[in-house]
Automatic annotation (TrEMBL):
It comes from Roseburia inulinivorans. It comes from the Bacteria. The lineage of its organism: Bacteria, Bacillati, Bacillota, Clostridia, Lachnospirales. SUPFAM superfamilies: Thioesterase/thiol ester dehydrase-isomerase. Residues 20-114 form the MaoC-like domain. This is MaoC-like domain-containing protein.
Amino acid sequence: MNEYTIEEIQVGMSASFKKLITKEMEDSFRVITGDENPLHKEDDFALEISGGNFKGHVAFGMLTASFYSTVAGMYLPGKYSLIHSFDEISFMKPVFVGDELTVNAEVIDKDEALKMIRLKIIIKNQDNKKVSRAKMKVLVMK
């Protein structure tokens, strides 16, 4: 876990990490949220409604988006983070069990007076295809 203070963070700093999406992650997320939508657990349903374009059920978009929290809490700034808001968040492609996601974050703005940074984050799958992106404001508490 990084421990960047607002003084240490500079525009252009970046961080990256990988996450493999597993069935256990999906099951845990389902228990936490109570989301039982068949799109997220039934391969046949997902194939039917996608016209055969999906390779199985779709992982929860918000499971993918939970890695935005990992960016702030572990990397930029790390220990002293408090997510303030999202300027944008979008999901471009579905994610499936077995996908390996790469999360790339970059500091694109810094306001020392407000102790706030703005991050641009892009999540890509193992085929280097963007699956999600966001711009997020994070308070740096120290």
